[in-house]
Specification:
The protein is an alpha/beta fold. Helix content is 51%, strand content 12%. It has ten helices and eight strands. The strands form three sheets. The protein has a four-stranded parallel beta sheet with strand order 3-5-6-8, sandwiched between helices. Helix 3 packs parallel to helix 4 and helix 9 packs across helix 10. The chain is globular. Keywords: Oxidoreductase. Pfam families: adh_short. GO terms for molecular function: oxidoreductase activity.
Length: 286
């Protein structure tokens, strides 16, 4: 099962799983984009067994979809929860409703998916009940973010929603192990996805030259959604718990723990770079 499958990383995860012959159930709030993914998958060895638009922030909608899938196909073997949103902003300007939206979609959306799908996976275990054959460990992979680890500028609300996901998965990796379920926390670095092109940076005019230059620099550094999905699927197959999709996140995490002065110096520099980019772009005064 793949969430966020209408675009970006989620779409690429679904396409690459189908290319490997998996039967996939996919969802996204974007029905049009979801249908486009279905059309692409139809040319693959795999099969789309279900494509239902679902708002993951609505627990009743997630529960209903999960029950319908379980009744038709049994417990899921692998969950790739990718769906989420991104909004940034200075803490003194960022409105409460955007804080709430990030928590509702990114954190509570993950809670809804886990609550709806993992109970049947726990009961089923790693053995097929019909054939009695081992099918290997079931898998729960959820996309958090490098912002759940690293203190990036203007990411306070976004980081709160994604760090919560990491904390939850850190517990579940041990809680679910006795049931034959491996847990994987994905912390992507820079990915040149549709989310980047449409990102909401509250209070900033993104048409300003410095902001455009900063976004272009980010995109040059970023990997493609296809490459990101490839790394995720490879590392999930290897049984890796924390999956960082770029070397800078691995180095940043290491420095955070082992070289805090270096980490602080680099993040201070990044913060100054953000302030430089936004110098003439504020719609509201911070």
């Amino acid at each position: 099962m793949v969430t966020g499958a209408a675009s970006g990383i989620g779409k690429e995860v679904a396409l690459q799983l189908a290319a490997k012959g998996w039967r996939v159930a996919i969802t996204d709030i974007n029905a049009e984009g979801l249908n486009a993914t279905v059309k692409e998958i139809r040319t693959s060895p795999g099969e789309v067994i279900d494509a239902t638009p679902v708002d993951i922030s609505d627990h009743e909608a997630v529960d209903t979809w999960a029950r319908a899938l379980e009744e038709r196909f049994g417990a899921a073997h692998t969950i790739h929860h990718v769906g989420g949103i991104s909004m940034w902003g200075a803490v003194d300007l960022f409105p409460l409703e955007k804080w709430q939206k990030l928590i509702d979609v990114n954190l509570m959306g993950t809670v809804h998916v886990i609550r709806a799908f993992t109970p049947s996976m726990m009961k089923a275990g790693p053995v097929d009940k019909d054939t009695k054959r081992a099918i290997g460990p079931r898998r729960l992979a959820c996309v958090s973010s490098s912002a759940g680890i690293i203190g990036l500028p203007w990411h306070a609300a976004y980081s709160a929603s994604k760090a919560g996901v990491l904390g939850m998965l850190e517990v579940l990796r041990f809680d679910l192990a006795p049931y034959g379920i491996t847990v994987h926390a994905v912390a992507p670095g820079a990915v040149d996805s549709q989310l980047v092109h449409s990102i909401d940076i509250h209070g900033i005019d993104q048409s300003q030259k410095r902001v455009r230059l900063a976004k272009e620099a980010f995109q040059r550094h970023a990997i493609s959604p296809a490459k990101c999905a490839e790394i995720i699927l490879r590392d999930v197959d290897k049984g890796k718990y924390l999956i960082a999709t770029s070397a800078d996140i691995k180095v940043g995490r290491w420095a955070q723990v082992n070289a805090p002065f270096a980490y602080k110096a680099v993040l201070t520099g990044i913060n100054k770079a953000f302030q430089w980019a936004a110098k003439d772009a504020w719609i509201e005064s911070p």
